[in-house]
Amino acid sequence: MPRMAIPERTPARPIDALLRESRTFEPAPEFRRQANVSDPAVYELAARDPEQFWAGFARELEWVRPWDRVLEWNPPRAEWFVGGKLNVAANCVDRHARTHRKNKAALIWEGEPGDVRTLTYQDLYREVSRFANVLRSLGVRRGDRVTMYLPMIPELPIAMLACARIGAPHSVVFGGFSPTALAQRMNDAECRVLITCDGYWRRGEVVFQKHRADDALRQVPGADTVIVVRRTGDRVPMQAGRDRWWHELMAEAPSECPPEEMDAEDVLFMMYTSGTTGKPKGIVHTTGGYLTGVYATTKWVFDLKDSDTYWCMADIGWITGHSYIVYGPLANGATTVMYEGSPDWPDRDRLWAMVAKYGVNVFYTAPTAIRQFMQWGPEYPARHDLSSLRLLGTVGEPINPEAWMWYHRHIGREGCPIVDTWWQTETGMILITPLPGITTTKPGSATRPFPGIEADVLDDQGRPVPPGAGGYLAIKSPWPAMLRTIWRDPERYVNQYWNKWDRSTYYAGDGAKRDEDGYFWLLGRVDDVMNVAGHRLSTMELESALVEHEAVAEAAVVAAPHEIKGQVPAAFVILQNGFGPSRELEEGLRKKVEEVIGKIARPERILFTPDLPKTRSGKIMRRLLKDIVEGRELGDTTTLRNPEIAEELRQAYWR
Ligand code: PRX
Question: Is 386 among the domain residues?
Answer without folding.
Answer: yes
